[in-house]
Amino acid sequence: MDxxxxxxxxxxxxxxPNPSFEARKLLIGIFQHITYNEYLPMLLGASTPVxxxxxxxxxxxxxxxxxxxxxxxxxxxLAMASMLRETVTIDATPNINLKGILNDQTKIDTATxxxxxTKGMLTDCSLKIGKEIPCNFRNDCAYSDVVSVLSQDARYxxxxxxxxxxxxxxxxxxxxxxxxxxxNKNQLLTFxxxxxxxxxxxxxxxxxxNGPSMLGVTLTKxxxxxxxxxQEGDRFYYENVNIFQP
Length: 246
What we know:
By secondary structure, this protein is mostly helical. 51% of the residues lie in helices and 4% in strands. It has a two-stranded antiparallel sheet. Strand 1 (87-90) and strand 2 form a beta hairpin. This is Eosinophil peroxidase-like.
């Protein structure tokens, strides 16, 4: 919001006809650029094809609907939850409980406090996407059990079982769970009994990670498909012709 207001002041000084709209459009463009050129290469690997064009311009594809799928939303929530850390360093004070900060508005009610928290979270880099959720965010009733809630949502939204996703990504033979190491494969089969019954999220998040991506094969392909769809179908995407005028 501070950056938006700063840009509005600049646009007003330049006598732009709609400074608030111009500032909003510029911030969205900056956010999109960071997402596709910094965030996604770190998450999916530097070789990910979902990047901005070197030419800097593109034409939206009218047949592509920039919709977000339920499967992506659930997977993204769980991926980000697995990166949460229980503690953070703020103003050189280590091991401050992050959940305690989120539950106390007095600790985030000024720009100075927010800046200190942000700096601390940037200093203490996020954990890598893993197969566990920090206990503070898993077992506390204020947050509920993230894994259980998202797994139930997957069934509620009718997300296909993991077996179907193996066919979608051409990871065959699916019944052999080819993307899992022996330990995780045995755990899944022991718990579910039948490979055809394995849930989407447990199956996808327990895959081996062997490449530059922080995700397994299934989630990497799902994330690339989703972000590419948004990139190609959004008529307001920042690289599109006539979005930004010189």
